[in-house]
């Protein structure tokens, strides 16, 4: 269910235009927009940069056919990834420079996601002023999508050390998986914090934390600990709410982690969802 639907190309919009307008006639609260690509990169990691050269995301100005804008009431852009206010301010200037002539036709503009508004030192006042100024000058409603920002620093993943081996360094095999349960560690790459640990070599005992699948690259990273790890010991990965549950897989038949809610005041742990073989089978059939 949605009130706003954004199309990634002019051709895609034209394929669905008549269907959309027919639906809008029955539901006047429906709005349709185009995702634009201001070709202004602010991302430090190419895989998370929607404006990287050759990106498939959004319409560059050279590919925007202004003759198809009938029925389009808004524009959407997204250039950020866990970034503060200054990259957004630069992006807005780039959007206005390239697409400003279209704004008088628009009712709304979506500034996309990646706004780290919960970060220490984020310029909230600057953001408020930017949104107000943009909205006033262009007479549009402004939307933001700071989804990840509200989940950063929340949620943990609890795992158990299954085995400890040695091959040039200590290897700790855990009952979770980078590829199945936290794929950003391989894709970005991203290094999740482990409670009580530090970077490799900082504390006396360093281990490579490896997953339980057959994939040779199913490795989280190298961590150091004050004391030697023990088989059966539990480790806690921190800040695991975002981009984990929605990206999990059951590769190798690996179990998905159970979902639980912990009450910090009473220390009560309520397991709200567990996964088993039926979940694995249903993904395949």
From TrEMBL:
InterPro entries: Ala_racemase/Decarboxylase_C, De-COase2_C, Nsp_de-COase, PLP-binding_barrel
Keyword Lyase belongs to the record: yes
Keyword RNA-binding: no
Cofactor (UniProt): pyridoxal 5'-phosphate
Molecular functions (GO terms): diaminopimelate decarboxylase activity
Keywords per UniProt: Decarboxylase, Lyase, Pyridoxal phosphate, Spermidine biosynthesis
Residue ranges of domain Orn/DAP/Arg decarboxylase 2 C-terminal in the record: 154-240
One GO BP: spermidine biosynthetic process
PANTHER family: CARBOXYNORSPERMIDINE_CARBOXYSPERMIDINE DECARBOXYLASE (PTHR43727:SF1), DIAMINOPIMELATE DECARBOXYLASE (PTHR43727)
Protein name as it appears in the record: Orn/DAP/Arg decarboxylase 2 C-terminal domain-containing protein
Organism: marine sediment metagenome
């Amino acid at each position: 269910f949605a009130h706003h639907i954004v199309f990634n190309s002019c051709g895609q919009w034209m394929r669905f235009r008549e269907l959309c307008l027919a639906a809008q006639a029955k539901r006047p609260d429906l709005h349709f927009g185009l995702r634009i690509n201001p070709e202004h990169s602010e991302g430090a990691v190419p895989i998370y940069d929607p404006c990287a050269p050759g990106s498939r995301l959004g319409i560059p100005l050279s590919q925007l056919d202004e003759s198809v804008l009938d029925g389009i009431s808004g524009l959407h852009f997204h250039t950020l990834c866990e970034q503060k206010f200054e990259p957004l301010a630069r992006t807005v200037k780039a959007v206005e420079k390239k697409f400003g002539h279209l704004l008088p036709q628009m009712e709304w503009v979506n500034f996309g996601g990646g706004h780290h508004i919960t970060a220490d030192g984020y310029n909230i006042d600057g953001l408020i002023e930017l949104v107000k100024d943009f909205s006033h000058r262009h007479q549009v409603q402004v939307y933001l999508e700071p989804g990840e920002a509200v989940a950063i620093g929340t949620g943990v993943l609890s795992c158990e050390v299954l085995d400890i081996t040695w091959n040039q360094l200590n290897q700790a095999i855990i009952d979770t998986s980078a590829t199945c349960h936290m794929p950003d560690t391989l894709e970005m790459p991203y290094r999740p914090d482990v409670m009580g640990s530090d970077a490799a070599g900082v504390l006396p005992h360093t281990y490579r934390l490896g997953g339980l699948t057959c994939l040779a690259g199913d490795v989280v990273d190298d961590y150091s600990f004050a004391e030697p790890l023990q088989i059966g010991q539990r480790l806690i990965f921190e800040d695991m709410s975002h981009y984990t549950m929605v990206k999990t897989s059951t590769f190798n038949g690996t179990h998905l982690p159970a979902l639980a809610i912990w009450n910090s005041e009473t220390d009560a742990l309520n397991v709200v969802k567990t996964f088993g073989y039926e979940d694995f089978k249903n993904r395949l059939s």
